């Protein structure tokens, strides 16, 4: 049996809009208190106000960089009780093609991977102690994208760092999953977010290729649909949360014959190029 959201204290990063805002809404509807974090202070405040109007007294928000260790501690401190559930959702889609510069690689690494590491470092030891004392542990959610299980055409930075996010989540689960820490890895394909819109309108050819790959590979979902899949996975105690179930089939085919899968990706890329 997985985690029960009712009465829990949660943190969601990247919650000013998109998937993060959808997850925060569903957590609140399920009875949790939620601290929202986002780099965009104005957008975050507007989202927090909207959610607080519907769920008064259970919403807090702290603007800042999810990859900053101090900000992680500020988010945790803003919770009304010890944090039970942390959703490392903030992510960036930056750096396209082999020409992606070192700044794009570094910022992608910090936000898409190190933000997860720093949050886990701050929370997991306490969860293990709580579980050992019989008080219950905690849940760590990594929003890692289907790109972390498969790949992301057009963006080597996104593909690589999302693979690393999956790898870190797997390591957490293998190391702490039997010691009171539930780990869930959320891996959607296309979702109606600002990230998708910006990529679709980018003048960069590789960015456009990446977005065409996402939007043609499967149905583009709403953030709330993604949030529903996540909460179902958390409740059931599953590691993978796959809003697009076909990703599981794609992953199985990749594992069964890597060379054949790469050939298929090459054909897919060719079909999307001008």
TrEMBL record:
Gene Ontology MF terms: oxidoreductase activity
Keywords on record: Oxidoreductase
Domain of life the protein comes from: Bacteria
Keyword Ribonucleoprotein: no
InterPro entries according to UniProt: NAD(P)-bd_dom_sf, Sc_DH/Rdtase_CS, SDR_fam
Family: Belongs to the short-chain dehydrogenases/reductases (SDR) family.
Name the record gives this protein: Oxidoreductase, short chain dehydrogenase/reductase family protein
Organism of this sequence: Aeromicrobium marinum DSM 15272
């Amino acid at each position: 049996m997985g985690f029960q959201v009712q009465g829990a204290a949660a943190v969601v990063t990247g919650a000013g809009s998109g998937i993060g805002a959808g997850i925060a809404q569903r957590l609140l509807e399920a009875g949790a208190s939620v601290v929202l974090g986002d780099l965009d202070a104005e957008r975050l405040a507007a989202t927090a106000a909207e959610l607080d109007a519907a769920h008064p007294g259970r919403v807090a928000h702290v603007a800042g960089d999810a990859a900053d260790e101090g900000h992680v501690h500020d988010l945790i401190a803003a919770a009304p009780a010890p944090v039970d559930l942390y959703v490392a959702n903030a992510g960036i889609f930056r750096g396209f093609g082999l020409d992606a510069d070192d700044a794009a690689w570094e910022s992608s690494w910090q936000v898409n991977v190190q933000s997860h590491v720093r949050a886990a470092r701050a929370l997991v030891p306490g969860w293990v102690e709580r579980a050992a004392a019989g008080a219950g542990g905690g849940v760590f959610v990594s929003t890692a994208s289907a790109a972390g299980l498969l790949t992301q055409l057009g963006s080597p930075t996104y593909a690589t760092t999302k693979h690393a996010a999956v790898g870190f989540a797997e390591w957490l689960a293998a190391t702490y999953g039997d010691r009171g820490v539930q780990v869930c890895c959320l891996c959607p394909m296309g979702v109606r977010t600002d990230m998708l819109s910006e990529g679709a309108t980018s003048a960069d050819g590789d960015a456009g290729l990446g977005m065409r790959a996402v939007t043609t590979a499967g149905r583009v979902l709403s953030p709330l649909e993604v949030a529903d899949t996540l909460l179902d996975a958390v409740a059931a105690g599953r590691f993978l949360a796959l809003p697009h179930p076909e990703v599981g089939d794609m992953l199985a085919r990749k594992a069964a014959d890597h060379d054949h899968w790469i050939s298929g990706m090459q054909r897919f890329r060719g079909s999307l190029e001008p």
